[in-house]
Specification:
CATH topology of the largest domain: Neutral Protease, domain 2
Largest sheet: 7 strands, mixed
Number of domains: 4
CATH class of the largest domain: Mainly Alpha
Bound molecules: ligand BES, zinc ion
Oligomer: single chain
CATH architecture of the largest domain: Orthogonal Bundle
Shape: globular
Distance between the termini: 80 Å
Number of helices: 24
Radius of gyration: 28 Å
Structural class: alpha+beta
Helix content: 40-55%
CATH superfamily of the largest domain: Neutral Protease Domain 2
Strand content: 15-25%
């Protein structure tokens, strides 16, 4: 019998079932990860994969009876498992690799039902995987630990022996033996709580049996928490658990969750199947959040909102994450992907419907426009690489599974669903959802056969009616010619109304020229302005058009009022700035940034005006940050003045202004500014404020301060999951920072790799740190480093980074001179003030 191996060691094994085995043997091994040679740069094909076999179907679990007893002081746990199993066939395979354990029996098992009993012990590790410990400080300043879980994708096996594959579903009876003054939670509601016979300080908490479910969705938490609770309109008991003393900060998420559950119930026409749902903030947490059935775990920053100290973008983020994880309760938990190859069914769908849900709860967020800058363009960017991958990708070994939690599964998945939804309409889409969820409930689903050639819906609009498609076609062959009739010569013609279709558009110069007035006078709708600019930017990066063309288009955005349009433009200008930081005319591009952003900066000012809302707050933060970073004099002076008042306690900065002000003063500050920021960090009680500071530290320019920030990144002051954004911030902060961050990663590789045990945070760290290079030889250096320091879960990311470095280098070679000339010429032609 094969089980995915628990990291814990089985002490005693007993198989009760026909026939009783005279001898048992547990073979256990963690895989010896193979070193794969990175293939030559730029080629799309992945290195040949080692064959990986799924668990055999001859024995499968029906119910797990699982009892865990964590020790929060010596960081171990004891467990007892009884798995009622159905034996479908007899005979065994023997393979002890790939994180699997093989149980061998001296005599053949017969078909029927049996019980497998295993006692085991394990470590409450500090790797944010499996059953692990999470550090927190009590209100009185004492450091303590909670015991929490993160099983997706392949780490339930670290906590208990199990058939750790999403398609092998079973029910679970879970009990936890915990100190009596601790909160103990699991997927289901508590059905019994009694003193533990061997120790008067402990209690045994027993939870109701779960529905049939996959192992990666099992969860338990033992720690100290406060909570707020409500009952949703559809009768589900909803609680938000927060650190002790911070229950107030759970109210926003509670409201969102209570509104979201009935919304999904109505949309899917399928009720939420459990009696309760808990949402809990976990201090040390690798992902943003995790959808464990009935017990959703979150980073503190993805769940907690303080009315005074949380900024608008945090509120929006919490709403999106809550919407995302609650969608998984149906899409993922009730119906689960058959194998990780179909991960996009889970993540693509949740990443799409989280917007539908937030649009329902907060129409004023104009969240669908934000989808385009956050997901659609992100997906297009990654998908433009040779080293992209299909949405549905074959995966085997756990390290390959970790790799696909990326912008393709999430953002491209969501974009393709948005395109489909737009094409078939909400009514039929909703019907389809219900059919899918009803047909596959408590089971698994896979993507059906796609013919290899996609049909792509194409829309065309004109200035006659910018919000209406004049022509809709379904492109079902590689090439099509379309003639648009009755278009007057002074009209513009735009493809991809609403930037819904997942494709790029290239216009002739004449067509592009005619679209510019539509940008200036805003007659082109916001998502179309955004999409047009983004397409052009990507075409420039690919060398299809000149970057100067894009700069000219960017200048047409003088009257732009829309936050999301600015946000995307700002992001692209950021990419260009990073590229040009490799040249000696970096200052000129900063001048350009200042010119583009100052009119809107002046219109907005520093303080909110009556009647302004969420999007104005986001826009103000974005614009002031951009101007401050680029060294816009008036912005810099005001930021310094406000920062001083903030630090002296005279006038506390509003939450929405903190990031732009911190960034501005640090970038143009000295060692004293950095020290003040580090002090603010230490004093901050909210993780959101700590993160806000951590993310801007990399803006500091002086070499010894950069070093100080890097050392800080690995210190006890920074939570393990946040180290990535501090180092990433340094790499993205400046030319010197980029080099220093890369050296730091090489020098501290072992510690960093060990901290995340591979996993997706390593991929994120590598991506943030190296993809800004723009010299060919750096691609070689990165490749060579990872050949001698393998990171199996980041192989594809490393290939993507190397490809990006080569693309940057080519871009620079191709366009740097003409950009420089354009900027000089522009400067000369501007009126001097
Ligand atoms: N299922 C994931 C959590 C996860 C991510 C597990 C990566 C294992 C590896 C969860 O539903 C998720 O997608 N979380 C996102 C946040 C979401 C709002 C996009 C995350 O963690 O970034
Ligand atoms: Zn998800």
């Amino acid at each position: 019998m094969w089980l995915a191996a628990a990291a814990s060691l089985a002490r005693r094994l007993l198989f009760l079932g026909p026939p009783p085995p005279p001898l048992l043997l547990l073979l256990f091994s963690r895989s010896s990860r193979r070193r794969r040679r990175l293939h030559s740069l730029g080629l799309a094909a992945m290195p040949e994969k080692r064959p990986f076999e799924r668990l055999p179907a001859d024995v499968s679990p029906i119910n797990y009876s699982l009892c865990l007893k964590p020790d929060l002081l010596d960081f171990t746990f004891e467990g007892k498992l009884e798995a009622a199993a159905q034996i479908h066939a007899t005979g065994f395979n023997y393979q002890n690799e790939d994180e699997k354990v093989t149980l061998s029996f001296p005599s053949t098992l017969q078909t029927g039902t049996g019980t497998l009993k295993i006692d085991f012990v394990g470590e409450l590790n500090d790797k944010m995987k499996g059953f692990y410990r999470s550090k927190y400080t009590t209100p009185s300043g004492e450091v303590r630990y909670a015991a929490v879980t993160q099983f997706e994708a392949t780490d339930a096996r670290r906590a208990f022996p199990c058939w750790d594959e999403p398609a092998i579903k079973a029910t679970f009876d879970i009990s936890l033996v915990v100190p009596k003054d601790r909160v103990a939670l699991s997927n289901m509601n508590v059905i019994d709580r009694k003193p533990y016979p061997d120790d008067e300080n402990l209690v045994e908490v027993k939870f109701a049996r779960t529905p049939v479910m996959s192992t990666y969705l099992v969860a338990f938490v033992v720690g100290e928490y406060d909570f707020v609770e409500t009952r949703s309109k559809d009768g589900v008991c909803v609680r938000v658990y927060t650190p002790v003393g911070k229950a107030e900060q759970g109210k926003f998420a509670l409201e969102v969750a209570a509104k979201t559950l009935p919304f999904y119930k109505d949309y899917f026409n399928v009720p939420y199947p459990l009696p309760k749902i808990d949402l809990i903030a976990i201090a040390d947490f690798a992902a943003g959040a995790m959808e464990n059935w009935g017990l959703v775990t979150y980073r503190e920053t993805a769940l907690l909102i303080d009315p005074k100290n949380s900024c608008s973008s945090s509120r929006q983020w919490v709403a999106l994450v809550v919407g995302h994880e609650l969608a998984h309760q149906w899409f993922g938990n009730l119906v689960t992907m058959e194998w990780w190859t179909h991960l996009w069914l889970n993540e693509g769908f949740a990443s799409w419907i989280e917007y539908l849900c937030v649009d329902h709860c907060f129409p004023e967020y104009d969240i669908w426009t934000q989808f385009v800058s956050a997901d659609y363009t992100r997906a297009q960017e990654l998908d433009a690489l040779d080293n992209s991958h299909p949405i549905e990708v074959s995966v085997g070994h756990p390290s390959e599974v970790d790799e696909i939690f990326d912008a393709i599964s999430y953002s491209k998945g969501a974009s393709v669903i948005r395109m489909l939804h737009d094409y078939i309409g909400d009514k039929d889409f909703k019907k389809g959802m219900n059919m899918y969820l009803t047909k596959f409930q408590q089971k698994n689903a896979a993507t059906g056969e796609d013919c290899p050639q996609w049909m792509v819906p194409i829309t065309i609009s004109t200035s006659e009616d910018p919000n209406q498609a004049k022509l809709k076609i379904l492109m079902d062959k590689p090439e099509m010619n379309v003639v648009l009739k009755n278009v007057k010569p002074d009209q513009w013609v735009k493809l991809n109304l609403g930037t819904v279709g997942f494709y790029r558009t290239q216009y002739s110069s004449a067509m592009l020229e005619s679209l510019l007035p539509g940008i200036r006078d805003l007659s082109l709708p916001p998502v179309d302005r955004l999409g047009l600019q983004n397409d052009l930017f990507s075409l420039a990066r690919a060398g299809i058009i000149s970057t100067v063309e894009v700069l000219k288009v960017m200048e047409a955005f003088v009257n732009e009022p829309n936050y999301t349009v600015w946000s995307d433009l700002s992001c692209n200008l950021g990419i260009l700035s990073t590229l040009l930081s490799h040249t000696d005319f970096y200052e000129e591009i900063q001048e350009f940034v200042k010119d583009v952003f100052s009119p809107i900066g002046e219109r907005l000012g520093w303080d909110p005006k009556p009647g302004e809302g969420h999007l104005d707050a986001l826009l103000r933060g974005l614009v002031l940050g951009k101007l401050g970073k680029a060294g816009h004099k008036a912005t810099l002076e005001e930021a310094r003045r406000r920062f001083k008042d903030h630090v002296e306690g005279k006038q506390i900065l509003s939450a929405d202004l903190r990031s732009p002000v911190y960034l501005t003063v640090l970038k143009h500050g000295d060692g004293t500014t950095l020290d003040i920021m580090l002090k603010l960090h230490k004093q901050a009680d909210m993780q959101e404020e700590k993160n806000r500071i951590e993310r801007v530290l990399g803006a500091t320019l002086l070499p010894d301060l950069i070093q100080k920030v890097l050392t800080f990144a690995l210190s006890e002051e920074v939570r393990p999951q946040d180290t990535v954004s501090v180092i990433g911030g340094v790499a993205g902060g400046s030319k010197h920072g980029r080099k220093a961050a890369w050296k730091f990663i090489k020098d501290n590789w072992e510690e960093l790799y060990n901290r995340y045990q591979g996993g997706f945070l390593i991929s994120r760290l590598i991506k943030l740190s190296v993809e800004g290079f723009a010299v060919d030889k750096m691609a070689g250096e990165v490749k060579a480093f990872f050949e001698s320091h393998p990171a199996p879960s980041a192989e594809r990311t490393i290939q993507q980074c190397c490809e990006n470095i080569l693309l940057n280098a080519a871009w620079l070679k191709r366009d740097a001179e003409s950009i420089h000339q354009y900027l000089l010429q522009r400067k000369a032609s501007l009126p001097t003030v």
